[in-house]
Amino acid sequence: MPTRKPSRTDEIAPDAAPIDIASIGEDVPLLEGLRTTRAIRRLRPDPVPPALIRKVCEAGTFAPSGGNRQPWSFVAVTAPDRRAFVAERYRQAFASYIAPALAALQKPGFPPAKRRTVESAVYLAEHLHEVPVHLFVAGTLRRGEPQTQALFPAIQNILLACRAVGLGACLTTVHRRFGDELDAFLGLPRERPTCALLPIGWPRGRYGRPPRRPVGECLFWERYPEPDAD
Ligand SMILES: Cc1cc2nc3c(=O)[nH]c(=O)nc-3n(C[C@H](O)[C@H](O)[C@H](O)COP(=O)(O)O)c2cc1C
């Protein structure tokens, strides 16, 4: 059976060849995959096999959690009318979130890298209804509080697994402005709220290293340095 293996940096276009779910993504070196996992918001509308979504969610389940309580649940929304419902609320929430950045963007000297991030986030908000999988990550409350810290390792594992198998994805949270409504829409009980929405699809662009501060600016030994005296 022919298989389609994604290369590490090339665009991956869906084609007629069946995907070998067991082998896809298994050959990506861990650290190289990690360094080239970034927010991919420009996604094709082509469907993603449910077995591939299952595979990336399984990667999520290998995350650590306090007491190994594994509080996560994943809800994949794929029906077009349901995606439209989600996208409408995301768009509204995003519009108020992004307004200050859009105003700042008009000013001269706005950093080009930040401009690209804002533009790609706007693109996602405008096209979310077309993204084939809206993967919600929800988790149980602990002592009455959401334990989002117990969900983010699983979320990152899913993003890394998407990278490995050639899917594009992005961590988003602005849907929480409509959190109660969306949680009810997903059939989640109040004690299992969503924390994140990962739009997942085949990327239109390429993977690559995201811009990051050099580690030398972030790593210190023994003590964080004193501020320089004037
Ligand atoms: C807690 C958290 C919440 C985020 N929420 C959103 C969001 O609602 N919408 C969005 O487009 N991106 C969201 N992002 C993605 C960030 O914008 C992205 O990780 C950042 O710009 C770095 O992107 P890069 O890896 O492509 O450089 C979120 C990231 C984090 C960690």
List keywords for this structure.
alpha+beta; two-stranded antiparallel sheet; binds flavin mononucleotide; NADH Oxidase; 230 residues; disordered N terminus
Topology:
Elements (H helix, E strand, L loop, with lengths): L29 H6 L14 H11 L11 E6 L2 H26 L6 H16 L5 E7 L1 E2 L2 E2 L5 H14 L2 E2 L9 H7 L8 E8 L29
Antiparallel strand pairs: 1-2, 2-6, 3-4, 5-6
Helix pairs in contact: 2-5, 3-4
Structure summary:
By secondary structure, this protein is of the alpha+beta class. It has helices at residues 30-35, 50-60, 80-105, 112-127, 152-165, 179-185; strands at 72-77, 133-139, 141-142, 145-146, 168-169, 194-201.
Spatial extent as radius of gyration: 19 Å
What is CATH's topology name?
Answer: NADH Oxidase
Spatial strand order of the main sheet: 1-2-6-5
Parts with pLDDT < 50 across at least 5 consecutive residues: 1-13
Estimated share of beta-strand residues: 5-15%
- The CATH H-level superfamily is NADH Oxidase
| Secondary structure category | alpha+beta
Assigned CATH architecture? 3-Layer(aba) Sandwich
Mean pLDDT score: 92
Give me the oligomer status.
Answer: single chain
Bound molecules: flavin mononucleotide
CATH classification, class level:
Alpha Beta
Q: Major sheet, described briefly?
A: 4 strands, antiparallel
Q: Secondary-structure element sequence?
A: HHEHHEEEHEHE
User: What helical percentage do the residues reach?
Assistant: 25-40%
Number of helical segments with 4 or more residues: 6
What is the overall silhouette? globular
Domain count, please report it: 1
Kindly report how far apart the N and C termini lie: 69 Å
